[in-house]
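hi! just following up on the protien thing from before. the input was this:
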Amino acid sequence: MELMVTESSPEIAPGIRQLLAALRRRIRRYVWYEGLAATIAVLGASFWLALGADWFFEPPRAVRYGLLAAMAAAGVASAVWFLLRRILARLSDHSMAILLERRFGNLQDSLVTAVELTSRKEPATEIDEFGRQMLSETCREADRRSRNVQLSAVFNFRPLGRALIASGAILFSLAAAAVASPDMLRFGLRRLTTITDEPWPRNTHLRIEGFDNPQREHVVARGMDFEIHVQADAAPGRVVPQVVEVRYRTDDGKRDRGMMVREGTAAPAENTFQDYRYTFSSVLSGVAFDVAGGDARLRGLRLRVVESPNLGLTLACEYPAYMKRAAAEVPVTGVMPLPVGTRIKVRAHATKNLRQAQIDYLADDAPQTRKFVLDGARDFHFTIDRLASDQTLSFSLLDADGVANRGPIQLAMTAVADEPPQVDVRIEGIGSAITPQARLPLRGRVEDDYGVDRIWLEYTLDDDDPRRSDLASPASRSHVDVDLPFEVAQLELKPGQKLLLGARAADNRAPPAADGPNVAQGERFLLDVVTPDQLLALMETRELNLRQRFETIIQEVTDTRDSLAGLEKAPSEAAEKPPADGEPEAAAETVLQRNLLRVERAEQNNQKNAEETRGVAVAFDDIRAELVNNRVDTEELRIRLKDRISGPLKQIVDVQFAHLGRSLTALKKQLAGGAEHSDAAKSAIEQADLMIVALQKVRDQMLQLESFNEAVDLLREIIAAQQQVSEQTKKERSKKLRELLDDED
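and the predicted 3d structure came back as:
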């Protein structure tokens, strides 16, 4: 093949045109063969389908008209689809070239380029000499590469083969039917073409549901009831039997028969079939049975008994990464609690080979159904990507024998939400008021099951937006002890402002959690910002209240001591004033009961006063801590509060109150035993006297502190008055200076 090149424009080689024409002819020939074969197959299949429908259902003439119309429509549709639309399709050189290029990669677009450029209508003057040379070279290259093209490799003969096989099978079946049963085929053609309305030749026609397999058997789960459903054709011309009988024999040798229950009476003008039902109760072994009614028999039917399928479930759990829990496989036992966000692979193992498994997601908002086609397998699995809420799954099994599970198999999973951290952080040594330069000691603990990610202090000034100050990043520890000071000076507070603050913490719950980390808020504290003088005034008020409370304690201890002192006088008083009946034993018993009551009351008062005294000591420790943390303390004040008030009070509680308590216990035992108690009572009184003296010394220190505070208040007033006089002097000087300047003007 040679390329003809002129100065006007290059032309494609004749060999390429012949190649494209040959491909076009083969395509049309292929379409003819496949289209005709497919049309024959569709027509033949529709014929057999229509004939089968007529055989089974014997429809009326109108329906058979519909069948004929459907056959014609199927033939026309197949002819149009498989033949006509493809024959009329335009097969251009460009399309043929593209087809060859797709099939033969060695052409490297040379063929389609040559065909496309040589088929253009542009004048030759629009192509310069260099362009013509390149086009000529492309055409030569396409010619050279296309010489080894095998057109047969372009075609996929499988569709054609299938169409030919299908059409051949249809033609063979028609020929076989014409040879084997020409009368039946002729009768069927007459019915389909509505030449005759004569029914198929039989009087009674019975059919049974569920026994369509070649073995004519149905599989039943052991112990289940099974109902057979038989229908008798009740169309006009058919004989509907009055009685249909079931004759059966079990595998264990039992033989019997039973009458089927007829359901109503089928009217030929209303119903197509007459229904009959019979129930085999609690089938435990195989049953072979026949059904007889009228002149029809259904023989060789059988119930095969098998065990119903059951299911064992295992959950392969991948917990959220932030939990740092290793993946685990958990057998299903009852309701399964699982953390929210867990990825669950449900592994199911059946006791029998399964045909199908259906899982129903029993959700109130959006129930779903998922099916598995297992083809005899026993194991299947599926994945729940993220457990977000409680889920209940119901499994319905159908085994290879067609038997379903007897009872519901359910998997209930409870989604356990990750709880927020527990934040127990307090401000120690600070009351309800602070100074602008205070230090807030934050102490406590933050806990979370799966780790604390960060802790911060959130605070708000008056009505401003909340602000935060980071306290710790504990690297996902499950518990974090907090012991940090927060310097208020950095906030530049002014007296009169209110500071609301509290600790917050976030755990390390991370996506795909829906809401991100859990954030918890600890106790919040509302603090009034005051001047140092105002804070000292508040402390002085608290000290005064504590001193008054402490004086009450001293008075109660004194009353207790006096009550104990009355024990020595009680017996003599009882002797001097005997009861009316004059019996000394009764008088002694009265004195004993009175003394025991006094000692018990003294014991109770001693315990109460000890706790209250300890409370006063702790309250003075709190005052001292508040003064230190607010930075308004002095060395003398710290020593006085701790070493002269709080410390001695704790010493009194731990030693003297305890000693008095032991003395009272010993005294009560002596009184109860009737022994001489004067020494024990004397010891208790002496101990009470010593304790009263110690308490009074502490009270004196409180009074000195009060005097000191009064002196401080007086000094504070003097300083304030001096500042006021200084301010007034400055104002007078400024006024006189202005007057002097006005006079000079």
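The mean pLDDT is 80.
Residues 26-193 form one domain.
cheers
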